[in-house]
Design a protein that fits this description.
The complex is a heterodimer of chains A (296) and B (233).
Chain A lengths: L2 E7 L8 H11 L7 E7 L6 E7 L3 H5 L2 H9 L4 E5 L2 E7 L3 H10 L3 E6 L2 E7 L2 H8 L8 E7 L14 E4 L2 E9 L2 H10 L9 H14 L4 H11 L2 E9 L2 E6 L8 E4 L3 E5 L15 E3 L7 E4 L1
Antiparallel strand pairs in A: 1-8, 1-14, 2-7, 2-8, 3-5, 3-6, 4-5, 9-10, 10-11, 11-12, 12-16, 13-14, 13-15
Helix pairs in contact in A: 3-4, 6-7, 7-8
Chain B lengths: L6 E5 L5 H13 L5 E5 L16 E5 L14 E4 L15 E4 L15 E4 L12 E7 L13 E6 L15 E4 L10 E4 L3 H13 L10 E5 L15
Parallel strand pairs in B: 1-2, 2-3, 3-4, 4-5, 5-6, 6-7, 7-8, 8-9
Antiparallel strand pairs in B: 9-11, 10-11
Classes of the chains: A alpha+beta (296), B alpha/beta (233).
């Protein structure tokens, strides 16, 4: 069992409240996943620049002068924002690959990268994880979150969701995939590699790989129904929006709500209880084996 | 003259779920046919479950998992949508959902009426054992799987594999059936079925004519092992 939440804002006025709304949704899903929590938030972006989110268990040492070290390695300007065990480095788009290589060389864990996406995830109760990162104060256009009750891999930072396998793309999952090892090998043959033992990361890599091959988000999500075996309710985030798909058996719960202001996703209705205007929202359960997505 | 019904209002922003359920269960046991209204349910789980006696409960909003489970004699109305497993193993009484119901609504129910005004999702009435379920909208896949007894009435459409491995429950569907499950077949609508359906539609306040429905039931081919099919296993 895990908990998933997602919120896509239709109106810019609500952007400053995104983190606050998502945090309440995330904490409500603690019963479904008390061992880790994570959030991908799509916030501000700067033309030509990319943000890389990294994690370290020893942030004080690891993040000291990290910007200068990366700057020297890639010969380009770098700014750093340290948030607890995570740091977000902003640097020119053209320098992303060497920057990631330099960061990995230093033993840092790459959480994700993108023009607008930042990822924060850790083990621990969702309320504690949210407080460490100050999720409530984060703004943005949309975000997805996850509370984990581990089944397929260990309770570690790298095993927590969301998983990001391409710029500005991420995935959260409730369920378990049974053909992930086979799919991992198939993807590796194509040169697509994952960073953890986790089944969901393979799902994320599958979607990213399909999009890299030219598929739309909708087509990539439809592909999961055919190519991934197991139980899943997936919520995937992209720079412009988010998508939802459930396996044909659909025993992993899902509920959605839409108003003029937002589209919200959650594993349970409880997570919607504090959303503004929820009483008048259109609330429905996404159909099995059906792809839904919202993009701006 | 204005008639007012005395009712007790429980506000779940101020009252814990356990206290709400303890209060309702005690009131049901008291056999006093009291009326309760629950406000701000906030999608809570297991609301108004295990009621064992005549009681009227109105929940003003949506509920989470297992609302009105094991209900006996009580009348529970959800003025919103219900999460998975609503009225699971219900024994008697009436449970009404004004909105939609999530998966396995009325599962294993032995009796009473589950009246869903919106849609029900997958596995509606799975293993039902005597309950009557009326769904005013559509139902999802694998509904009435291994259903043993009772009636499932659907005014809209049914999803894939309706009535798979069905026993003796009666299934009435007005709209389209996406596919029938193993051993489930369409059956003749005889006068006694029209009579049953008419009564159920009236009880559920459903605006539909019994003649518009088709009846589905068990072909009874899975009741015994068939040696001629041994190769298929």
């Amino acid at each position: 069992m895990c908990g998933i939440v997602g919120l896509f804002l239709k109106k810019d006025e609500l952007r400053p409240q995104l983190g606050d709304l998502l945090t309440d949704m995330l904490i409500t899903m603690t019963d479904r996943g008390p061992d880790s929590a994570g959030i991908a938030i799509y916030g501000d972006e700067t033309d030509g620049m990319v943000k890389i989110t990294v994690q370290s268990d020893t942030p004080a040492e690891a993040f000291a002068d990290l910007d200068a070290a990366v700057c020297a390695a890639i010969d380009a300007p770098v700014t750093i924002k340290v948030v607890d065990t995570h740091a977000v480095l902003t640097l020119p788009e053209s320098a992303v690959k060497p920057a990631i290589a330099a960061l990995e060389d230093k033993g840092l864990r790459i959480m994700g990268s993108g023009a607008s996406m930042e990822i924060y995830k850790e083990t621990g109760l969702p309320k504690d994880v949210a407080a460490r990162f100050g999720l409530r104060d984060m703004g943005g256009s949309h975000g997805i979150g996850h509370t984990r009750m581990a089944t397929e891999s260990a309770v570690t930072t790298m095993g927590a969701h969301p998983f990001s396998t391409a710029d500005d793309q991420c995935l959260v999952h409730n369920g378990s995939l049974s053909n992930h090892n086979q799919m991992r090998r198939k993807l590796a043959k194509k040169g697509v590699f994952t960073r953890s033992e986790n089944d969901t990361e393979v799902g994320a890599a599958y979607i990213s790989s399909r999009i890299a091959d030219g598929a739309t988000l909708g087509e990539a999500l439809e592909g999961t129904i055919e190519d991934l075996d197991g139980f899943f309710t997936f919520v995937t985030g992209t720079k412009n929006g988010f998508g939802v798909v459930r396996d044909p058996i659909a025993c992993k719960p899902a509920v959605m709500a839409e108003t003029e202001d937002y589209v919200a996703f959650a594993s349970e209705y409880r997570a919607f209880a504090d959303l503004p205007g929820i009483e008048a929202a259109r609330v429905w359960e996404p159909e099995p084996a059906t792809v839904y997505f919202w993009e701006r | 003259m204005t008639m007012t019904l005395d009712k007790t209002v429980l506000d779940m922003t101020a009252t814990e779920l356990r206290e709400v359920n303890t209060t309702l269960q005690a009131a049901a046991k008291a056999q006093a046919n009291a009326a309760y209204e629950i406000i701000n349910p906030r999608g809570s789980h297991a609301m108004a479950c295990g009621l064992d006696g005549p009681l009227s409960v109105t929940i003003k909003g949506s509920t989470g998992y297992y609302c009105a489970g094991m209900n006996k004699e009580a009348t529970v109305t959800v003025e919103g949508s219900a999460g998975p497993g609503v009225a699971e193993n219900m024994m008697s009484g009436v449970v009404t959902i004004e909105g939609d119901a999530s998966q396995y609504a009325g599962a294993t129910g032995h009796g009473g009426l589950l009246n869903i005004k919106g849609n029900a999702s997958s596995r509606c009435g799975i293993s039902m054992k005597g309950i009557d379920i009326v769904v005013h909208g559509n139902i999802g896949h694998m509904s009435a799987f291994m259903a043993q007894k009772g009636n499932l009435v659907v005014l809209g459409d049914a999803g894939d594999a309706l009535g798979d491995s069905l026993y003796e429950a009666r299934l009435f569907v007005r709209g389209n059936v996406k596919s029938l499950g193993a051993d489930c077949i369409e059956k003749e609508m005889r006068p006694e079925h029209i009579a049953i359906l008419k009564e159920l539609l009236e009880k559920a306040g459903a605006d539909a004519k019994p003649e518009e429905f088709k009846r589905y039931g068990s072909a009874r081919k899975l009741y015994n092992f068939n040696i001629d099919h041994a190769d298929e296993y």
